[in-house]
């Protein structure tokens, strides 16, 4: 009896200790496999926030393992909203994975600054990736810490059938966009599937609409140097345009979430839907027969812009016991072979240049992201601050749609937030 | 071997220390650092507390969330506990089907909060939700609205759902209080001529005070730690426009909210410490004050 009790207590204490020291199972393991050419087999652990990509990675990892029989990769995804916490805890207790997915821009770079990441400048293939793409994982010291995975683009998706039936074409200017929306509304079709309940979708939509108000990189240069600010006429107009679209949103749009918006568009009740390349798969799954196309944002000087940013990179843990092997995987990720596998597997734009897929829409996005891209300003340049300037914009836009703030007050709030941390505004 | 008996509480004690006592102390400790969640920064003393109460937008967000917690408490006291006491009294007086009612009111409690949140989100959906459809069908078209997207109704909707969820538990507590009143005391009062409301006001309520005290403190703690239902229905941003933000949601957003680069574990811990003091001191104080008013029998 007493022995049983002792075991019971001991096992409880042990469990508790294991919980506290935490996550040690996520660490590295080495197993020596006899007979296979006598080589040491290494298993690398790889953490990601893309649970939905698990199947896809299986195929990609298989291709890598075929070329590197000594390396096995254990892909382990976590829930996206908990990923940062899990990763940070593991890195601090020195039990982090060998390979980790890195959030793009400020949050990911913060890990490099804390000394957790291995510089990747010498990995072959890195130099073929454009500099502005690498910027998503480049530290303030100028070193590259991650191999970028893919570009995200945001644009107006539209229903080709509804457009044709109403004699409409993809608009070429802001006025044409408004006229198109008006026509659709008169015909009893919801012009733009939109919801204001989730803040991140507001900054995302603003990211699509805004570049038309400051066409050209001229304004961006001035803004990022601090010669202009977010209260400028250009930025204010971008917020006013967000307001101008209100009549063309669905009824009760302030209570709608992404799910509702996607459903409205996929069930052909709405003609347009502002969203990201990452939604492509979701829309197609809901309605495979949807006559789907997209148009980039038309600017007033007759051009068009596609808003893009880098979505995540992969990095190597500076304390990994198998750095050489992990770097081999980084090398693989910078190859065209990986880019093609990735793009076809996930229907996403690969960060490796010149990769095409079997999906014409993805190819069109990839092409435009090379010829007419504009950065998603809030993610690329204004994702810092506490709360971030991006979050401040989201909240203020929500306030505007609820009738609590004017566009002037929105830009005021955003500028105020940026001025607390953005170096060119601080002076 | 008798000394072995002292080992029995050990597992509970170990777990309690590890998961309750230790985190409380570590939160105190963390609140003194500037910490972004990746690498513990410099020791800043009480700076996080000062920031919390004096720097925009933190102070605004704090008081905004605080007001919502107070509102949460008041509405729950009136709606949940008021109705629960009335129903408990009816069940106590043994109206027809009181046994069934007791079970029926407790039913929502059996579902997890996440399920409740999901169910009500469907019911309140502005496009295809049951509530708006019913309102439109019975001719109250102008009452339909995006309940959870409208800052005027979102918080109230969540609190009412929480009251619906909590009413069964409150009934059980009140019923236990009512049933503990000695029959002879009621009988004596009745002989002295007390009836109806007078009986309720002068006899039953004072004798029920222990149950009411307990329920008030429960409700207070619950209102000030309101998190799950808000998070399940509105996410960690307290959307829309911070209209459903509570202190616990605000804490979660600061300390853990992933995906953005604005994690401030030090500041979040400071808020947790403040929350701990609010709940702890008010609970202790009200327990002390209300005990004094309780009638001993």
UniProtKB/TrEMBL annotation, chain A:
Pfam families: SBP_bac_1. Residues 1-26 form the signal peptide. The keyword Ribosomal protein does not apply. Keywords: Signal. PROSITE patterns: PROKAR_LIPOPROTEIN. Gene3D superfamilies: Periplasmic binding protein-like II. The keyword Signal applies. It comes from the Bacteria. InterPro entries: Bact_solute-bd_prot1, SBP. This is Probable multiple sugar ABC transporter substrate binding protein.
UniProtKB/TrEMBL annotation, chain B:
This is Putative sugar ABC transporter permease. The chain crosses the membrane at residues 12-33, 70-91, 103-123, 154-178, 199-224, 263-289. It is found in: Cell membrane. It holds the Pfam family BPD_transp_1. CDD domains: TM_PBP2. SUPFAM superfamilies: MetI-like. InterPro entries: MetI-like (IPR000515), MetI-like_sf (IPR035906), UgpAE/MalFG_permease (IPR050809). Residues 66-286 form the ABC transmembrane type-1 domain. Belongs to the binding-protein-dependent transport system permease family. It comes from Brevibacillus brevis (strain 47 / JCM 6285 / NBRC 100599). GO terms for biological process: transmembrane transport. Its main location: membrane. It comes from the Bacteria. The gene is yurN. One of its GO terms (cellular component) is plasma membrane. Keywords: Cell membrane, Membrane, Transmembrane, Transmembrane helix, Transport. It is a multi-pass membrane protein.
